[in-house]
Amino acid sequence: MASPKSRERIARNFVDRYGRKRLAELLTALGNGESGQAIAESFQVSRERVRQWKNTFGTVVTLYQVYPEIQVILEEPYS
Question: Residue 63 has what pLDDT?
Fold first, then answer.
């Protein structure tokens, strides 16, 4: 795992090469779960490079979200 200093250096290199707007686009694409192949094509890099960026710039968090109709049942008064 990269150190905070290393991550910052890599991010600054990315911004120097692609720009801050493209960094935001990359992070949005990663956050939306877009495929590495689609992102790689957009940046004209390999999927491996996208995987490296993904691991350097953040972390994947899995969230279990309860459907609203189930939440309603939980909030009903006990009978």
Answer: 87
Q: What angle do CA 26, 32, 35 make, to 5 degrees?
A: 75
For the ranges 2-6, 12-16, 60-64, the maximum mean pLDDT occurs at: 12-16
Query: Residue 50, Cβ neighbours under 10 Å: how many?
Result: 23
The pLDDT assigned to 79 comes to 66
What is the spatial distance between Cα 67 and Cα 75, in angstroms, rounded to a whole number?
Answer: 13
Q: Where are the domains of the chain?
A: 1-79
Q: What is the pLDDT of residue 78?
A: 83
**CA distances (Å), 59 to each of 1, 35, 36, 54, in order?**
11, 16, 15, 7
CA of 26: how far to CAs of 48, 55, 61, in Å?
Answer: 14, 12, 17
CA distance 78 to 13: 57
